Amino acid sequence: MRHPWAPWGLVLWACVGYGHPTEPPASESLKALEKRADRGEAAAEYALGKMYVEGRVVRVNEVEAARWYRKAAERGYAAAQNALGFLYDSGQGVPEDHVEAARWYRKAADHGNEEAEFNLGALYDFGQGVPLDHREAARWYRKAARRGIIDAQFNLGVMYEEGQGVARDTAEAARWYRQAAERGLPMAQMALADLYAGHRGPAQDLVEALRWYRKAAERAYAPALHELAQAYAAGRGVPADDVEAYLWMDLAAFRARGALREQCLAERDGLARRMSPEQVAQAERRELEWKKKWAP
After folding, report:
1. Which pTM was predicted?
2. Using CA atoms, how far apart are residues 115 and 189, in angstroms rounded to an integer?
3. DSSP character for 147?
4. What domains can be seen in the chain, in order of their start residue?
């Protein structure tokens, strides 16, 4: 069972070939790039495809992006193979076709593209375009995780925690969560905090749990904001403090959606009933500082 707070789809297709080390410089003109592509240079073909996906210099045109990605992909350019796989996965510029996506991801992965390793693992994890196979998913996630793909590190942690495709091992889950958490992934910070808090096992270290909840909360991650608020409301791992509880609970309501938002609003109103107007005003003043930090 996946974590109820984890927006799994957000990490499923995270790797689409950004920052390939052999891309032409951004300063290169479109005309010069087209000349190189017309000469059959795969790096230039890939760069043109990426331009059409992102709308840089040219208007967004996913059909044209797929055309250029395919040219580079057929020359064996791994980043283009991964990018073309993504277009098939998402139905952008080509008909949605998970089997074809898997074919291109595998070509790129076999060429050592770590993003494709992650994407292929995700297809096996969900049985899209390939048979559902958690063991194979874990194998590809591990390859990508060892090469620093942060979402693969998180997904592998989930698999170890749940015992899917690998033997259940919370210590190994924590190790992979920590790698992603230390690089700032809020879902991983939340998962690691939950392990320390004992939400899915015996409590280990509430102080350490709160440290990771706070890190995720400071990144505006609604489930962590809610956990931090509840901790202050109940005095769990920290001294009870209604002002702090209200602050984080109202921020959680601000960031959350759906049922979690309704829960946060109800709990915030419950806190307000036992607080003075001055305490509520104090919390609300402090909220503005966080909202300014999170503003785009």
Report:
1. 0.87
2. 22
3. T
4. 18-112 (1.25.40.10), 220-296 (no CATH)
Angle between helical axes of 242-255 and 258-273 (0-180°, round to 10): 150
> For residue range 6-52, what is the model confidence (pLDDT) as tens digits?
443 334 444 665 444 445 555 578 899 999 999 999 999 999 999 99
Task: Say how far apart CA 176 and CA 158 lie, in whole Å.
Answer: 9
As a whole number of angstroms, the distance between CA 44 and CA 23 comes to 7
CA 263: distance to chain centroid?
24
Rounded CA separation 17/113 (Å): 9
pLDDT tens profile 265-288: 999 999 999 999 999 999 999 999
**C-alpha closest to that of 114 among 87, 142, 93:** 142
CA distances from 52 to 55, 56, 126, 137 (A): 5, 7, 29, 31
The token pair at 291 is: 């909202």
Q: What are the tokens at 274?
A: 């036992």
Distance, CA of 75 to chain centre: 30
Cβ atoms within 10 Å of 21's Cβ, excluding its own: 5
> Per this entry, what is the length of the chain?
296
Taking the C-alpha atoms of residue 228 and residue 248, their distance in angstroms, rounded to an integer, is: 7
Residue with tokens 């959350």: 256
